[in-house]
Write a structure and sequence with these properties.
The protein is mainly α. The chain is built from one helix and no strands.
């Protein structure tokens, strides 16, 4: 009977050992799944953060382009006004010179 008791005890110990190994492996797998999920969440967060930063940078660049276009338009307008002013000054000077010529003809 002692032989059976010894075999039963060995068998029970073996079953308990295998059960403990199974539980340890199950816990390891659950921990690994949790780690992977955390890593996926971290990657998703980083991806979303980068997308947001890219959108913000794109908006900033669009504003800068709009400002540059506005400045270019203002420069063109300023150049047109300067040209018109220069032409008006030339015409004014020409009319003054014509008046001087007429006065000199009258005096002569």
């Amino acid at each position: 009977m002692h032989i059976f008791d010894g075999l039963l005890q060995d068998s029970t110990q073996h079953v308990e050992s295998e059960k403990a190994k199974f539980e340890a492996e199950k816990h390891r797998q659950v921990a690994e799944q949790a780690r992977q999920e955390t890593e996926r969440e971290r990657i998703a967060y980083e991806r979303d953060k980068l997308k947001h930063e890219a959108r913000m940078r794109q908006q900033e660049l669009e504003v800068q382009v709009q400002q540059a276009d506005a400045m270019k338009d203002m420069l063109k307008e300023s150049q047109l006004q300067a040209r018109a002013s220069q032409e008006a000054n030339m015409k004014f000077m020409q009319s003054i010179m014509e008046m001087q010529m007429k006065m000199m003809e009258k005096l002569a």
